[in-house]
Design a protein that fits this description.
Rossmann fold, alpha/beta, single chain, globular
């Protein structure tokens, strides 16, 4: 009897000890679920305030997918701008001018987009097209980095939304977000920002927060960069620090390595098959990146063979835009003024090579 009583006493001690160890994590988990810093637990009418001036970065693909599910039944989107973060600078209003009247446009971007990601999004849209619209028009904004990337990067800002995978990655999707949240450096920055609503230099240095400034429209999942454009107009945007990011990143005599291999070709072929099935009017734009590196000719030929030469326009390499850093917010992203000029060139097809190219 004494041995039995001793066993129960030891088990009680162990249970108490276990409770003390798990209580902090349980409290942290509760905090995470209630705060939902990455907005992946609950659904929202709008995933951003009307005007965003920094804060916690969200997974763009998740935001776009959830926003689509919420608004598509009423909006009936039929025209989509797809690509990585560079695609968000293409204004819907500017694109709409080149589309049939009544086209209902939507931004469906992703951070560090992949070919599999593009295919998954088109499949997702197509699966709902019978009831809620069609794949009428598609603009794909690509570059060598996107064409090379088969699958998404596995971290909280890039992980594929579970609905696009049939929820096969549901656990890993939420784990990547939770893992980032409980990282001490992020947790400290999040609590600091939540309490004082100030973006401190250490938060931006370690990419714990973002100082992006834009006005968000949930209807088209569109970011309008009026705040940044206002700073540029006032002459306060291109500080010495911002100008330094443009130094030493141009390679005008370079050509990117060929990146379209067997797996990339298979995905591009599958993307083309979906677009062809729905009779989609498609345009593929190779971004005019500031680095001035030309897309490999073999990759360009591959795109043209699959989608047709009239549907692929290559703006890579040296051109009138990347000759001036003022056309870029930083070395990776060009301004909407460039995107609008790209759209006009692509859809007019009127001597566009004379308008922007300087390399020939």
């Amino acid at each position: 009897m004494m041995k039995k009583d001793g066993f129960y006493i030891e088990m009680q001690r162990f249970a108490k000890l276990l409770a003390w160890f798990t209580l902090p994590f349980a409290a942290l988990l509760l905090f995470y679920v209630c705060a939902d810093p990455f907005k992946v637990i609950w659904t929202y009418e709008s995933y951003y305030p009307q005007q965003v001036a920094g804060g916690v970065s969200l997974n763009p693909a998740h935001v776009a997918t959830q926003n689509y599910l919420r608004h598509n039944p009423a909006e009936g989107y039929d025209s989509f701008i797809l690509g990585n973060s560079r695609s968000i600078y293409y204004p819907i209003a500017a694109w709409s001018r080149h589309l049939p009247e009544g086209s209902r446009c939507y931004h469906y971007d992703a951070a560090n987009e992949s070919l599999l990601g593009l295919w998954q999004k088109l499949q997702f849209i197509a699966s709902r097209s019978r009831k809620e619209g069609t794949l009428r028009n598609v603009l794909m904004v690509v570059d060598a980095g996107l064409l090379e990337k088969v699958e998404c990067d596995h971290w909280h800002l890039c992980e594929t939304p579970p609905v696009l995978t049939g929820y096969r990655n549901l656990v890993s999707f939420h784990w990547y977000n939770l893992k980032t949240f409980i990282t001490p450096t992020f947790l400290l920055a999040y609590v600091d920002y939540s309490l004082f609503h100030r973006l401190r230099p250490y938060m931006l240095r370690k990419s714990l927060m973002t100082d992006d400034m834009f006005i968000y429209d949930a209807r088209g999942n569109e970011c309008d960069f009026v705040p940044l454009e206002r700073e540029i107009a006032e002459g306060t945007y291109y500080t010495e620090q911002r100008q330094r990011v443009f130094e030493g990143v141009q390679f005008p005599d370079s050509v990117s390595p060929a990146v379209i291999g067997t797996r990339q070709y298979e995905l591009l072929d599958s993307i083309h098959a979906i677009l062809e099935r729905y009779g989609t009017s498609t345009q593929i734009v190779v971004s005019p990146l500031y680095n001035q590196i030309r897309l490999n000719p073999s990759d360009l030929r591959c795109l043209e063979q699959l989608f047709g030469t009239d549907h692929v326009t290559d703006f890579s390499g040296p051109n009138a835009w990347n000759a001036d850093f003022h056309n870029y917010y930083e070395a990776s992203h060009y301004r909407p003024t460039v995107a609008i000029a790209v759209l006009d060139s692509v859809y007019s097809k009127k001597s566009w090579c004379k308008i922007w190219r300087i390399r020939e």
